[in-house]
Amino acid sequence: MAFKNILKNLAAKTGAIGAVMLDREGEMVEHYATRKELELDAIGAHKVIILNMVKDVASRHAGSGPVKSVGITTKTTKLAITPLKDGYYLLLAMDRTRPLGKAVLECKRAVTRLEKEMG
Length: 119
Prior knowledge:
Elements: H1 3-14, E1 18-22, E2 28-33, H2 40-59, E3 70-73, E4 77-83, E5 89-95, H3 100-118
Antiparallel strand pairs: 1-2, 1-5, 3-4, 4-5
Helix pairs in contact: 1-3
């Protein structure tokens, strides 16, 4: 399954407005959006910085383990950011009314498929 199909499936399962796969520098590898005006590459690049900061803080606490996901809620949007192997990331953007827990669960499932596709 190609990256775009995985992202499209993830967005459909969660009711998200978009999903993006980013490399370690925050550059977009692939994306899927239900709205043309959605700038997932810009959103993703900034949120990767936040995820890296959270990972840094978590690494300072013995026994905390690796960061599995980060949820961000704004006035209108919820974001789920999940690390992939080799420093890549998955970002899911959805309306604020969507359940973040379901998004995190579906992101975890998508990570398995994306990493398999990555080789």
